[in-house]
Amino acid sequence: xxxxxxKETVETSGKRKTAIARATVRKxxxxxxxxxxxxxxxxxxxxxxxxxxxxxxxxxxxxxxxVDISVNVEGGGQMGxxxxxxxxxxRGLVHYNxxxxxxxxxxxxxxxxxxxxxxxxxxxxxxxxxxxxxxxxKKWQKSYR
Length: 145
Known about the structure:
Blueprint: E1 9-16, E2 19-27, E3 32-34, E4 37-38, H1 45-51, H2 53-60, E5 67-74, H3 78-96, H4 105-114
Parallel strand pairs: 3-5
Antiparallel strand pairs: 1-2, 2-5, 3-4
Helix pairs in contact: 1-3, 2-3, 3-4
């Protein structure tokens, strides 16, 4: 059986609320960087652990040894950015390891088994404020009843 030929670079994106993360996966030494800083120094620790989930699954399946991942993220809040980062990384690894046929089925199934949001963007958005109220649902109180 012929060996799978891997792609040179893969560019993917992930979104959550208003945060957008763009990941570039290329041949390398297994480094993962977010906004030009190593992902292992990301603070707070809870955000770092959540962002590292797709990386740890790929390491366990031996899909990360020869890959460098560079992620640029902007917009949104801290946890929205973390969710966008993990989606971009997971999608990039699935497409990079897929070779000529496109996607790595085994890695994709493992990500879906762990958490579907690793591969699928969260479509929820903030509901806009309406008139006659302070927010989307809250209304000004009336005292004449």
